[in-house]
Amino acid sequence: MKTIEALINMGLNEKEAKAYLALLQLDKATAYTIASRSGLKKPTAHVVLDNLVSKGFALKIPYNKRHCYIAKSPKECLAIAKEKISTAEEMLPELLAIRKENEEKASVSYYDGLDGIKEMYRLLIKTMLKKPEGERSFVAFFAHQKNTPDFLRKYLSKSIDELNLNRIKRKAVTTFHKSTQKYLDKEMKMFGLELKALSENEYSSNISIEVYDNYTQIISHRYVQGILIENRDIADVMKQIFLLVWKSTEIKGRQ
User: DSSP 3-state assignment of 60?
Assistant: First the structure.
C-alpha cells in the first residue's frame, strides 16, 4: 500500500505504520482493538503503540483502569517528520566534517613474509592499472640487496618484469653497490625505470620505500616485512622529499 510506504518514509516501520492507520480510523482504542484491526499480535501491539507514542504519532491516555491510544493528526505527524529532517540538515556540516576527519586519518596495514610482500605489489600494480597508460608512475628509494634473501631477490626481479610489462614508470634512488650494479649498468630507461645512485657512505639501506597515489609502502628486505600507509599528506611529503633528493647535485647518476 502506498499509504504504508508514505508512513515508512516518515520514520515508521511497517508494523508501526499498520498500527497508526488502524488507530487513525478509530476515535480511541485499546491495544487489543488495534491488534485485532491491524493484524498484530496483542503483545506486539503494546510495544508498537508505545513506539508510536515515543515518536510523537500517538497519545496514550488512562481509560477505565487501562490505557487507550489516540492517533495524532497526519498534519502533526508530517510536521514532526519535517522537523527531524530540518534537524538532520543542521547537523549535516558537522557530520561531513567528522567523515572528512576520519577519511584523512592514516590507515596502516602490516604484511609479513613473501606472501605479504607479493600482496603489497599486487595492490600497487592494481592501483596503477586503473590509470591511463601515460599516468602510471611512482617514485621510490630502493634498498641495496646485500642482505636480501635469495627468494625475495628472485621475486623482486619478477616484479620488475611485471612493472615493465604494464608500462609502469618509476623514478628511484638507490645505493651504488655491486648488488645494484646490474640495474645501474643496464639500459632500464627504455622500460620506464630512471635510476640514480648514491655512494654507500651517503645512502645505504635495507629498506625500500615506494610512494604512489595516497600510499607509502615500506619494505624491509632483511626481515621480509612490510608496512603500507594510506594517507594523502604522508604520500605527498614523501614525494616532495624524493624530488629534493632526485634533484640534488650530490647524487651520482648512473642511468
Answer: strand
